[in-house]
Amino acid sequence: MATQTTIEDFYRDHSKAVYAFLVSLCRDRIWAEDLMQDTFVKATRSMIGYQGGNPRSWLFTIARSVFIDDVRRKRPTPTDLLEDAGTSDPDITEVQAIESALERMPERQRTALLLCDRADLSYADVAEAMNITPAAAKVLIHRARMSFRTHYTEISA
To answer: Which fold has domain 1-77?
Structure first.
């Protein structure tokens, strides 16, 4: 019974962050819910192999893997719910510009940027989640920010 409570606490502690990360990746809330369930099922099954460290970066690694596997299975791409909304609202226009800039970025850069800036992970945690060195994570995040800035400027102009 104590194990179940531990798993429930683990879920409560990290589910919102994992869900937000998955929504950032797939841009569809319902799809993100499905991916989050798959992520926690996979995490629960592999807890025996968990070697410590930051549990959130470990979960983000699993979530990213689940997302990539799902995309590879040729799942239809989600529709952007904001496309149906009017663009007269400055907040909606801003969100659309940000989402569009993120969409134009290479997947690897987008993931690193989201892990660092939206999920608030350190360079070391991003490196762990993406299976790269911390130095490579710093470079990747720097390039991702430059790429985002370029795409965002093009869209906003």
So the answer is: Rna Polymerase Sigma Factor; Chain: A (1.10.1740)
